[in-house]
Amino acid sequence: SQQGEEDPQALSIQEGENATMNCSYKTSINNLQWYRQNSGRGLVHLILIRSNEREKHSGRLRVTLDTSKKSSSLLITASRAADTASYFCATELYSKLTFGKGITLSVRP
Amino acid sequence: KAGVTQTPRYLIKTRGQQVTLSCSPISGHRSVSWYQQTPGQGLQFLFEYFSETQRNKGNFPGRFSGRQFSNSRSEMNVSTLELGDSALYLCASSDKGLYSSTDTQYFGPGTRLTVL
Lengths: 109, 116
Prior knowledge:
The structure holds two protein chains of two kinds. Chain A is mainly beta.
């Protein structure tokens, strides 16, 4: 069963705009991770935030984690056409990753 | 370092057959996990191997099995294939230790299995 649920399911924005994606989960976690997948290929790890962290940055990515609300958000700033992909949040507990169903992001040039 | 490699990349089988997929992790990584991805169910965890031992298992029937060799390479086997087994099978490796959490997983390109 899926633990993480991303919101929205699909997002379409113009190049240069910011994209915000949300993820909610149900149980305790050790960490939460975001991955990107291009057209049914392998997943690429974007960023990991541990359960005792509240915010983390990596380049144009900013992730927040609110363990009291069991939710996380991923912000991609100044989006590019190359950011078009599916994005997944994954929660980790006891060495097991559980993925959400993903968000399809389309960035229009 | 070379990334995670999976062979074959594409596979077509018929119902009732069995299939073996192979995964070579990043050099030095001892943890290998397998996932099944379908449009309906999304990404689902199959199992994880660490130092030749299955450490975690998802909710899949016994037709799905795996193993890991001493060089950390891993194989997964699906017996008595069903139409619903058609999916992208992804392998991921991690350099996590025996008692540490997952940290970053590095995924291979996947094997696209079609069952006719």
